[in-house]
Amino acid sequence: MPRIAYVDGRYVPHDSATVHIEDRGFQFADGVYEVVTVVNGRLADEEGHLARLARSLDELRIAWPVTPQTLKMIMRQMVVRNRMADALLYIQITRGRAPRDFKFPAKAAPTLVLTCRRTKFQSPRQLADGVPVVTIPDIRWLRRDIKSVSLLPQVLGKQQAVEKGAFEAWQIDPDGTVTEGCSSNAWIVTEAGALVTRPASSLILNGITRQSLIRLAAGLGIPFEERAFTLDEAYRAKEAFISSASTFVLPVTSIDGKPVGNGKPGPLGRQLRQAYMNHVGTPDPVPLPAENA
Ligand code: PMP
Questions:
Q1: How far, in Å, CA of 235 to CA of 45, rounded?
Q2: How confident is the model at residue 12 (pLDDT cuts 50, 70, 90)?
Q3: Domains and their CATH numbers in the chain
Q4: pTM score, two decimals?
Q5: What count of other Cβ atoms lies within 10 Å of the Cβ of residue 51?
Q6: What is the pLDDT of residues 104-130, one digit of tens each?
Q7: Which residues line ligand 1 (CB under 6 A)?
Q8: Mutation test of ligand 1: which of 210, 244, 279, 280 has the most ligand atoms closer than 8 Å to its C-beta?
């Protein structure tokens, strides 16, 4: 079964899928993207991802290449044509192809690309042990709310994380607060037991998983504070985790080499992961600890 990609109206073999060298995505990173996770053949949080895509396009004044309804159809076609039950569906829209010139081209049709990649999600080991994160200065621009394909700071950040044996790098603003991971939102559970994540603003990407988790936490009656937290507070947290479309909720058990709490995944993160997996239609195989069962 060859992998299939979608490029501007055509379903093509993944290996030979291309866009033009003067596409503004290639030249200027002048484009936006979304990653929608396919769990058991179902698109997780699809509406949220499409709403954020609409917002990103609007903020950058890039036109929809197709209607949202058509995009939904293409997304489904991609899952079916690639015959993938558990996958990451990648959608990218750029301002299109035009002679290289910084200002917006007078006329350029936006480029639409979709790819689909099989995924296994997190290993039982990662869920049982949690993952390490390191911290780095946040060197990104100030419109982090736009899901732009301009990801160089995150590329460098992730590489640093990997070189230090970590899974993710949490980015720190000059005021000492944690903004977010390179490709995930950051959460802690304070010493007092409150769940904390940073409010949506132009300083972070408002994760779709994050938004779902906030709703789920409210439904579960979990004490929640939407506020910035410092790295110092994170070091003292009882629990920590990251959220994203591809990791759902993944426990963080060390920050900069210091164990978080007792160094093991905590009950609140586990409870939220379970709730999220139920929300996307797949109960997690990881059992709840006795105190939450
Ligand atoms: N922050 C950043 C910087 C990200 O790249 C991502 C993942 N794309 C997230 C947060 C998490 O967002 P989501 O839950 O929508 O995947």
A1: 31
A2: very high
A3: 4-118 (3.30.470.10), 124-279 (3.20.10.10)
A4: 0.95
A5: 14
A6: 999 989 999 999 999 988 899 999 999
A7: 35, 180, 183-185, 205, 207-210, 243-245
A8: 244
